[in-house]
Amino acid sequence: MKNFIKIILPVFALLLILQGCQDDDQQFGDIIVPSNLTLSFEIVGQDIDNPNGDGSGLVNFTASADNAITFRYEFGDGTQGDVTPSGDITHRFNLTGVNSYTVTVIASGTGGVPTSTSVILDVFSAFDDEEAKTLLTGGAGSSKIWYLDASSSGHLGVGPSLLLDLIIYGSPTEFYYPSFYSATPFEKCGDPSSDCLCDDELTFSLGTDNQLTFQLNNNGQTFFNQAHQDIVGGPGGSDLCFDFDTSGVSNVSLAPTSVDWSLVPDPSFSSRGTVMNFSDDAFMGYYVSSSSYEIISLTENTLYVRTIDGNDPTLAWYHKYSTTNPLDETALNSIYNTLVWQDEFSVDGAPDPANWTYDIGTGSGGWGNGEEQYYTDDPSNVIIENGLLKITARAESFMGSEFTSSRLKSENLFEFSYGRVEIRAKLPTGGGTWPALWMLGANFDEVGWPTCGEIDIMEHVGNQQNTIFGTVHFPGNSGGNSIGGEIEIPDASDTFHNYTVEWKVNEIIWAVDNEIFFTFENDGSLPFNADFFLILNVAMGGNFGGDIDPAFTESSLEIDFVKVYQ
């Protein structure tokens, strides 16, 4: 950090001189209250057809007053106020739709005595990032907890803003990454002065009204940057943990970035371009007086953000988060994070034929298990509706069977070796139902089962409603001799859960919602070192499904997505 300090001290000195001059103006001379304060505004894009603006949410404000030194704006949208010496400022209102805001400007004169005035305006904002909301929360009516990704390099970092880049280098050079400092894995954990950062829980929720909210559980203490400890009476000089209340829920509004990322010299860099603005001065764990964070990248399980220091616009701070707590030994920390294949079932109708084909009929001996269903590709058994794949088992006489259902497979369409398979699903109910999310060796047609190998990501039977099974089958360990584990999930048929297999060269790991419940050692003698394909189905009865409830009519396996990472 020594080079960083040498670089930044001249900038701090310049800022202090400017601030000192301003403070001197306020502390010396006659106390004069500003007068004739006026406040006007222009909503960008406002015309006869767009009385509340063009949807950008941008408004230009102009304030003037006699004997005023500074003007402070409060925008009435939960964001932090801004100070401007000139009285001119542009602000973006981010709440989607047409909303009314009371904007107040406070003019201060010599001696610091203020006067204020307000206006009420209606502004239209059309910006939204629905995908970001879903990735952050899991979708409408859902919540996700995020943790500091302490196992990754750069989980906390700092670099120059574009402003400082221009001061130091005269061109955009380092403003897009933490060039000054990047934390090493677990650097902030284990040290009492900083480990309070490692147990933060950041919860994003999405209401049925599409309102995104945020809540920080800091477990009692917050990690404060050395230059931002005035609100807790800290000594400064070094970053420290302090008792601090972060209770309460913050509304989150989304806005487009104001950073011109085309200036980045690295062609491989990209930013999502979405900014999260938190109300009520909320912040993401590390306190640097900022409530606005730009999303650089976001996946189902990873979040990388950048924020400008609230007191020093020359500094940009970086944070990495994960849905997996790296301090939880039972949590899955995946080594596979590059999405290589997915189906999110976003188009209503039949499943995408580029991804899925079908097994039709009853198979040999009820697919080798004495199952009682007839598999079809009929919409009554398999359909995509409202972003969900629905495989429905039904009690009906068809082709000599008393039940129908469906079985999809990616055979000859998508086959792979090693990776993380993530399937978000809600399971059917009823005695005799047997839903399965699984994989079969791609050489099945050549060598047969169990020589080809089988990996069952998730199996469930309605006669054991709360139990989820994860299993492997291979020669010598098939049928009743299979090897596997199980976990209790009491709401598997009421709530969507993430069912995961992490398939590696040396081991295979099973998890539900990132909680590991079974691990199997893999080696070169086993069939789990070649391509496999995916299978999704609901069977009825059979050796594992058991007795079918005579009152059973129908029930569905609902799948939100299937994703493969490598």
User: End-to-end distance, in Å?
Assistant: 35 Å
Largest sheet: 10 strands, mixed
Structural class: mainly beta
Query: For the residues shown, what is the average pLDDT?
Result: 91
| Global geometry | elongated
CA-atom Rg in angstroms: 29 Å
Note the beta-strand portion.
Answer: 35-45%
Q: How many separate domains make up the residues? A: 4
How large is the count of helical segments?
Answer: 6
Low-confidence stretches: 1-28
CATH class of the largest domain: Mainly Beta
CATH architecture of the largest domain: Sandwich
Q: Please give the share of residues in helix.
A: under 10%
Total beta strand runs: 38
The CATH topology annotation of the largest domain reads as Jelly Rolls
Topology diagram in text:
Layout: H1 2-27, E1 35-43, E2 58-66, E3 70-74, E4 82-84, E5 88-92, E6 97-108, E7 114-125, H2 130-137, E8 142-148, E9 156-160, H3 162-168, E10 181-182, E11 201-206, E12 212-217, E13 221-224, E14 240-243, E15 250-256, E16 274-278, E17 286-287, E18 292-298, E19 302-308, E20 315-322, E21 339-343, E22 357-358, H4 366-370, E23 373-375, E24 382-385, E25 388-398, E26 401-405, E27 407-409, E28 415-416, E29 419-426, E30 433-441, H5 444-447, E31 454-459, E32 467-473, E33 483-488, E34 497-503, E35 507-512, E36 515-521, E37 532-540, H6 542-545, E38 554-565
Parallel strand pairs: 13-17, 23-26
Antiparallel strand pairs: 1-2, 2-5, 3-4, 3-6, 6-7, 8-11, 8-20, 9-10, 9-20, 11-12, 12-15, 13-14, 15-16, 16-18, 18-19, 19-20, 21-38, 22-27, 24-25, 25-26, 25-38, 27-37, 28-37, 29-34, 29-38, 30-31, 30-37, 31-32, 32-33, 34-35, 35-36
